[in-house]
Design goal:
Length: 194
C-alpha cells in the first residue's frame, strides 16, 4: 500500500532543523532503495511517498541507529574497556535511559517509528487536542512535550509561552504535561542526532 505524506515546515528553528535532517536521511535511503521510498522537497514541505512501509521503517531504524552511534555518543575508555558514552550536552543526558526519547532507545525505536508513520490512523480515546507545536489535532495518548524534544520550553513561566498562557492580566495556567503530535516529537528528538 502506498502512503503519501506531506511534512510541512513549521517555521520553527528547532523542528524545521529536524525536518531537514529527516529529509536528508530519507534521501539516503531512497538512493539505495528507490522502490521503497521516494522523497521530494517542496518550497515549504517535504513530500514522502512510501511504497513498502514495513521495509521503510526497518531501513529508517537502521539509518538512525548508525547515525546516532556517531553523533550522540563518543567512545570513552573506562577501566581499559572502550564503551560508548552519551555526549554531555545532549538534552536527555541526565535522564535515565528508559526515559530517553524512543528515537534513541534501541528496544523502542522501531515501534515508535511505526506509530509515527501510522498516524493518524490509530485513534486514541478521549477528546482530540491540538499539538502545541504545529496545531495538528492529536490523540489524548500522544507524547508528552519534554525539554529533550523541544529545548526552548522551560519551567520558568515568563520565558515559556508553551507552558503558560497570557490571560490578559498576566501569565497563568501552568500546564504540567503539554502534549505534542508524533511528528513534532519525532523531529524534535531527531535534532540531537544532527
Ligand atoms: Zn505537531
Amino acid at each position: 500500500m502506498t502512503l503519501k505524506a506531506i511534512w510541512r515546515m513549521r517555521n520553527d528553528p528547532w523542528i524545521d532543523n529536524g525536518l531537514e535532517l529527516f529529509g536528508h536521511i530519507v534521501e539516503e535511503i531512497q538512493k539505495q532503495h528507490p522502490r521503497v521510498v521516494q522523497v521530494r522537497w517542496e518550497p515549504e514541505a517535504l513530500e514522502i511517498t512510501v511504497q513498502n512501509m514495513q521495509r521503510f521503517v526497518e531501513l529508517l531504524d537502521d539509518a538512525l541507529r548508525q547515525r546516532i552511534a556517531i553523533t550522540v555518543f563518543y567512545m570513552a575508555e573506562r577501566k581499559g574497556e572502550k564503551r560508548p558514552d552519551l555526549k554531555p550536552f545532549v538534552g536527555f543526558n541526565q535522564q535515565p535511559p528508559a526515559q530517553h526519547p524512543p528515537t534513541y532507545q534501541e528496544a523502542k525505536r522501531r515501534e515508535f517509528l511505526q506509530e509515527v508513520f501510522s498516524f493518524p490512523a490509530s485513534q486514541g480515546r478521549g477528546e482530540p487536542k491540538s499539538c502545541l507545536l504545529c496545531g495538528e489535532r492529536i490523540n489524548s495518548d500522544s507524547k508528552k512535550l519534554t525539554l529533550s524534544v523541544y529545548p526552548f520550553v522551560t519551567k520558568i513561566r515568563a520565558l515559556s509561552g508553551a507552558r503558560s498562557k497570557w490571560s490578559g492580566e498576566g501569565l497563568s495556567g501552568f500546564t504540567p504535561h503539554p502534549i505534542v503530535c508524533p511528528f513534532c516529537y519525532f523531529l524534535g528528538s531527531l535534532v540531537w542526532a544532527d
